[in-house]
Design a protein that fits this description.
ubiquinone, two-stranded antiparallel sheet, 2 strands
């Protein structure tokens, strides 16, 4: 029986149980991720990290959440009231919704009812995740606009450009997976990886997706919408209390969701890795075991998030846009063309594998030739970067800062009279004596 048929037979109470379980799982993963990130980054920087509240500091995230709930909720005077209130809600709801199509395991028995460890199996499940991640940015944009402050607005504009740029690259990286699995359903993609994971067959797509998911979730080194060194706090500068906590929650849930989608598309989903999948005729791929493998694979991606934050500095904005539009998008386009060509040649009965390899080699050679042989734009001799034509803008060379004028001394106070230029102290004293004599003669 297929996953869609199993889920179609679920009663209402079982669907409600799954909804509550997914909600609890995402909240617990958020609390765990905050603690884990602080501990791992602390270890990288030779610090102890949270170790006071609870065993090994495990309850520190819960304590921070309770502290945020009891903090004063402040709303700026110039803020749009309703939009300011709805923005964090708009960011949080799509983050929870996207996880509903992720398959966490195969067929299991819950209270005597056979079902699949998945809330919904849609024919376009991958597109649902992409759509939810795109809707979440509306909350960021509206929060920056409704705050009535310039720094949140700049962060919102950055986030909009960032999502547009990296959503394109992420969508292109999924095209190759869809071509090989012949479906947009997440459960069908997992089924298509029974003979081998797509991470080995479609490694360029995997690399582009991994980079894009970091940019899509506004995480370091791509956390430009909330760059505290430039924008104070970015789009959530004017938020406090539970509204700020909702933004925090949606960010970590989005990390979990895109990591779960990467596990589904490239790492075989809930299937055990190769040595374990062969044990006992695949017994470790049945029952509740697949949930364990899925969570372990997902934690690997989440560890990469933490690793990048503790290792790489923040990108400059022009470098970030250049990476998205001039590197990831062209690589994805070329890779899609290669995949389509290989599959077309492979399905043709008159083409041999040697001819396919020759054609691929010719295409790669042409791409490399165009990349390295095209003339590059000469740089200015003085090493400056022009204001137009790309690069980080700098002030023009004819912009001169005026010299600071000399400070004027106050008059009317004894001993503070300003001396004329070119007059020495002796000349000044003699001149003052003569002027005093003239004044006295005139008065007489």
């Amino acid at each position: 029986m297929s996953t869609a048929q199993l889920l179609a037979n679920d009663p209402v109470w079982l669907t409600i149980v799954k909804v509550i379980a997914i909600f609890a799982f995402l909240v617990v993963m958020t609390l765990f991720m905050i603690w884990w990130e602080r501990r791992v980054v602390a270890r990288m920087q030779h610090r102890p990290g949270p170790n006071r509240v609870g065993p090994f500091g495990l309850l520190q995230s819960l304590a921070d959440g309770l502290k945020l709930a009891f903090k004063e909720d402040i709303r700026p005077v110039l803020a749009d009231r309703w939009v300011y209130f709805l923005a964090p809600v708009i960011s949080t709801i799509p983050a929870f919704t996207a996880f509903s199509v992720i398959p966490l395991g195969g067929e299991v028995s819950i209270f005597g009812h056979h079902t699949a460890l998945q809330l919904a199996d849609l024919p376009v499940g991958v597109l649902v995740v992409l759509a939810c991640s795109s809707l979440g940015v509306y909350g960021i944009v509206l929060s920056g606009w409704s705050s009535g402050s310039p720094y949140p607005l700049l962060g919102a504009l950055r986030s909009a450009a960032q999502v547009i740029s990296y959503e394109i690259a992420m969508g292109m990286s999924i095209v190759a997976v869809v071509l090989y699995s012949h479906s947009l359903s997440t459960s069908d993609i997992v089924t298509a990886q029974q003979s081998g994971w797509f991470v080995w067959l479609l490694f360029p797509s995997f690399a582009v997706y991994t980079i894009s998911m970091v940019g899509e979730t506004n995480r370091a080194p791509f956390d430009l919408p909330e760059a505290e060194s430039e924008l104070v706090g970015g789009f959530h500068t004017e938020y406090s209390s539970l509204k700020f906590a909702l933004f925090f929650l949606s960010e970590y849930i989005n990390m979990v969701t895109v990591s779960a989608l990467a596990t589904t598309m490239f790492l075989g989903g809930w299937r055990a890795p190769w040595p374990l999948s062969a044990v006992g005729g695949g017994v470790l791929n049945t029952g509740w075991w697949p949930l364990l493998w899925f969570v372990v694979k997902m934690l690997i991606f989440l560890f990469v998030y933490i690793w990048l934050r503790g290792t790489l500095p923040r990108y400059r904005y022009d470098q970030f846009m250049r990476l998205g539009w001039k590197v990831l998008v062209p690589i994805s386009l070329v890779w899609i063309v290669l995949i389509v060509g290989i599959r077309a040649f492979k399905n043709s009965p008159n083409v041999s594998p040697q001819q396919v390899l020759i054609a691929v080699g010719v295409v790669v050679a042409l791409i490399l030739a165009v990349t390295f042989l095209l003339p590059t734009r000469p740089e200015p001799e003085d090493g400056r970067i022009e204001l137009t034509g790309g690069g980080y803008p700098v002030p023009p060379i004819d912009l001169k800062v005026p010299q600071t004028p000399p400070r004027r001394r106050r008059t009317g106070v004894p001993g503070t009279q300003r001396q004329p230029a070119g007059v020495t102290a002796g000349e000044d004293s003699s001149a003052s004596t003569a002027s005093s004599k003239e004044a006295s003669d005139g008065s007489v």
